[in-house]
Amino acid sequence: MKSELVYLCLLWALSILGAPVNKQRQKVLLISFDGFRWDYDRDVDTPNLDKMAKDGVKALYVTPPYLTITSPTHFTLLTGRYIENHGVIHNMWFNTTTTEKKPYYQTQFVNEWWDNGTLPIWITAQRQGLKAGSLHFPGTASSYQGQVAMVREVEPLLYNYKNETAWRENTDKVMGWFRDQDLDFVTLYFGEPDGTGHRYGPDSPERREMVKQVDRTVGYIRQSAKQHGLTNSLNIIITADHGMTSVYRNGQVEEITLSKIPGFSFRDLSFHLVDFGPSGMLLPKPGKLEKVYNALKGSHPHLHVYKKEEMPERLHFAKNDRILPIILWSDPGYVINGVLQFHKGEHGFDNQEMDMKPFFRAVGPAFQKNLKVGPFETVNIYPLMCHILGIQPEVNDGHLNATKHMLVTSTTTQGEFISD
């Protein structure tokens, strides 16, 4: 009788405090649609994204870190750290001594590029008793301090990122991981509309058709979650790594061609990364830094040139040994050494530019319904996910205060880990 009285008192106390009784554990699915700009739903009918916003939360836009390219910005989503702090500073692994470079896909398998002191949320969750998985998300192939995501799948070389049938198969596979293997956290990556935006441009009919495919897939994702019995436990966060902007072509502007700049010579460099759209990094030979810098600074009205230590603090892209001594980026529409590049759309520009901003949607039992919120930085998504999962976050640059107004306070978390 005494124990029953204690139990009834406990139930009464919990009800007064607004805490749920026998609450189901919250799960999180983080999805990235690469290159989905914040406004891509404005010139396309997107009924499923609209329904997701009505059932959950929509942000006006989110701001990625600089440098606005795929691997660095995805690792920010996984760690809540700016790029200078997590160290995955580029899509391309490089060695300044041998001048070797590896492209995006091969860089996924260079373990030390990823595992250099910062833990992604998969490992943090697993160390605190949860189960995590990842499908195709950048960083999946690596181990971190000897640990990997419990369930993981890396896309094969020359993978067709556009295949809608594969998108649905991958969706069902991930939902199966949640249901059948009781995973708590999964990341899922889709390589579009980035590829289409690059090839045809962000204002093209091809991009609009790809956004329709994304929207159909969002509907399928939510349908699959329901069919797998996950509606009451799964929180779905959908965002992207960066946006996209149109590239000037065919004599529209004076192109930025480094070899044509008076006083500049590639012979003065030990190493360079200037084959990647609007951004670049240079390592001058000993004694040549001032010569290279002075030749480039002010050489083109749409080229920004900084010594590493003079980079604007807001970009958080200086305090890392991997970042080279001179950093370049161009204004929207301009690319560096554009004669070598054929894309009609590009990213990698200043993260303050509106065309670099991605979209954000969230739905599930932790989130309020029909809520539109203002913009926030993507570093803040990490502490949000940790809070919902009830895990203690690693040191990060985000703040839960930036996102907690999205949450249904009485039903959000397993724990009380406020990283602010």
TrEMBL record:
This is Ectonucleotide pyrophosphatase/phosphodiesterase 7. The keyword Signal applies. Residues 1-18 form the signal peptide. Keywords: Signal. It comes from the Eukaryota. Pfam families: Phosphodiest (PF01663). InterPro entries: Alkaline_phosphatase_core_sf, Phosphodiest/P_Trfase. It comes from Seriola lalandi dorsalis. The keyword Signal applies.
